[in-house]
Amino acid sequence: MKSLSTLIVGAGYAGSVVARELADAGQRVLVIDRRAHIAGNAYDEYDEHGVLVHRYGPHIFHTNGERIFEYLSRFTEWRAYEHRVRGVVDGVGYPFPINRDTLNRLYGLELDEQGAAAFFERVREPREPVRSSEDVVLNSVGRDLYEKFFLNYTRKQWGLEPSQLKAGVAARIPVRTNTDDRYFTDTFQAMPKHGYTKMFEAILDHPNITVELGVDFSALRDRIKARHIVYTGPIDAYFDYRYGRLPYRSLRFEHEHLPDVAQFQETGTVNYPNEHDYTRITEFKHLTGQHHSGTSIVREYPQAEGDPYYPVPRAENEALFKRYQALAEQESEVTFVGRLAQYRYYNMDQVVGAALASAKRLLG
């Protein structure tokens, strides 16, 4: 094997951004990924019907970080897109996150912004201290909205009761007294104009970067010689599960194409908190702006087994991660970065930020 400065394990956001930064600085980099494609979970492709779909569920780019947006703008043009979601309760779709329109339609009210604030104040169940996701939601919107929109969705998504999950899970979802029905309110909201995979191809397009796909790190780690390793896989796997496995929640995706259906649903994503085994349906043409006579959708079924997607946010899991983190800190020739390596629920922009910070330290 040719001599190289750095081996990067994983061709998702963390690995690809670090690779590009090191390559731009003159280092020779080998990027490997066990999958047959780049872009990690953001991977998109045209399905057999010609519709651009996200193979691993919807990825909506949003950030308040101008530096992050400008960095990625080197590798893609953008299509402006603001994501909207509906939550189905008793067969009717309501704006979600909950806003004033949600209250007015659900309860047959005519609240203004002040009235909505008073409504939330009247129905909320004050919790002190706020420790769990259940505490967060009850403290904010009270029992009825909690049971209609949050309780069963959380049970499906995590396989746990909201009372068993850290407060931060529910704290990610705002509650609004205005009629803003955008899921995110970040300054920069857009989709890569030609898709995520094309953006990743541009990031990795550098003479100092070699990419090898379908390569499992565990199969070659004893045979490869690199001055430094950047590892973006599961941190517990790197240490052969010495202290046991870190819990993750996985997903099963059920893709479907609907011929001669111009639009399947009102918004990009519709949540199904209650009646179904799946948590949500996403229709990709909303996200991409593509024109096509048919449409393609995906249903998401959370499950315990399968590829790791979401670190399960509980105190005992964080304690287990800390043990692995202590081992990682002893590995002077390895940098651990990314959602799986840092056991964090990162948004895409946060992974980019973490990768840029890691690259800066490596080059420092």
UniProtKB/TrEMBL annotation:
Domain UDP-galactopyranose mutase C-terminal as annotated: residue spans: 148-345
Gene3D superfamilies: NAD(P)-binding Rossmann-like Domain
GO molecular function annotation: flavin adenine dinucleotide binding; UDP-galactopyranose mutase activity
One Gene Ontology term, aspect cellular component: cytosol
Key words, A-Z: FAD, Flavoprotein, Isomerase
Coiled coil: none
Domain of life of the source: Bacteria
TM region(s), chain numbering: none
Entries under InterPro entries matching the protein: UDP-GALP_mutase (IPR004379), UDP-GalPyranose_mutase_C (IPR015899)
Cofactor: FAD
Family as reported in the entry's similarity comment: Belongs to the UDP-galactopyranose/dTDP-fucopyranose mutase family.
Record protein name field: UDP-galactopyranose mutase
Lineage of the organism: Bacteria, Pseudomonadati, Pseudomonadota, Gammaproteobacteria, Chromatiales
